[in-house]
Amino acid sequence: MVLKQQTILVVDDEEDILELLEYNLTKDGFRVVRVSSGEAALDAAREGKPDLVVLDLMLPGLSGLEVCKGLKKDSLTAGVPIIMLTAKGEEADVVLGLELGADDYITKPFSPRVLVARVRAVLRRQKDVAGREDEPISIREIEIHPGRHEVNVAGKSVQLTYTEFRILYLLARRPGWVFTRYQIVEAVRGENYAVTDRAVDVQIVGLRKKLGGFGKYIETVRGVGYRFKE
């Protein structure tokens, strides 16, 4: 059986970056479509629906953040994962991009091998997560059963609050993915549950304490949010 070649849309206004990305992604077996503006990115994504977009945030005209927002608002492209390319010092833009729906980010200058690995990791995670929203998870001796609202750590039952459970399940379902506090709030918010950005930090502290030595796998990404160690 011949597997469909996956298509990566790369968006950057620097020709040398486009060439670098195209060379390395093509070498790794991907089909690459390259554009140099935000407007062209939206058109290319809608016409070809790539498997993933590598998107520079600093673009002339329509910015990378505007492109990200446009892709996520369009039903045709909302499910396409996005990896942002950012310059150092763009912490606020990284947070906003993640809140708009981007899946990962990498800062310039970057290692082409690391970027290709990130692309493969995001595609793999998306495939793994699809259709498994309520399935049990077993990771690093932590077993999470969403249907029964049960958590076992190294064979021992751990009692978590509703919010702690939802946060743990959210992070563990996508190890390595960085979630902003806003994304965590949106994921765990429910009827009669008031959650704020600051409350997320408090919940994380409590969750780590209950997990004991395994709490170290919930990592703080400074200025961005939290992730479950991959």
Determine the strand fraction and express it as a percent band: 15-25%
The fourth-level CATH homologous superfamily of the largest domain is Response regulator
Secondary structure tally, helices:
8
What structural class results from the helix and strand content? alpha/beta
Describe this structure in words.
With 230 residues, the protein is α/β, with parallel strands linked by helices. The protein has 2 domains: 7-129, Response regulator (Rossmann fold), CATH 3.40.50.2300; 137-228, Arc Repressor Mutant, subunit A (Orthogonal Bundle), CATH 1.10.10. Helices cover 42% and strands 22% of the residues. It has helices at 15-27, 38-48, 64-73, 91-100, 112-129, 162-173, 181-188, 197-211; strands spanning 7-11, 31-35, 52-56, 82-87, 104-108, 137-139, 142-145, 150-153, 156-158, 179-180, 218-221, 225-228. Helix 2 runs parallel beside helix 3 (64-73) and helix 7 packs across helix 8 (197-211). The longest helix is centred in the middle third of the chain and has 18 residues, at 112-129. The radius of gyration is 19 Å and the shape is elongated. The mean pLDDT is 86.
In short:
The chain has helices at residues 15-27, 38-48, 64-73, 91-100, 112-129, 162-173, 181-188, 197-211; strands spanning 7-11, 31-35, 52-56, 82-87, 104-108, 137-139, 142-145, 150-153, 156-158, 179-180, 218-221, 225-228. By secondary structure, the protein is α/β, with parallel strands linked by helices.
Reconstruct the topology from this structure:
Elements (H helix, E strand, L loop, with lengths): L6 E5 L3 H13 L3 E5 L2 H11 L3 E5 L7 H10 L8 E6 L3 H10 L3 E5 L3 H18 L7 E3 L2 E4 L4 E4 L2 E3 L3 H12 L5 E2 H8 L8 H15 L6 E4 L3 E4 L2
Parallel strand pairs: 1-2, 1-3, 3-4, 4-5
Antiparallel strand pairs: 6-7, 7-8, 8-9, 10-12, 11-12
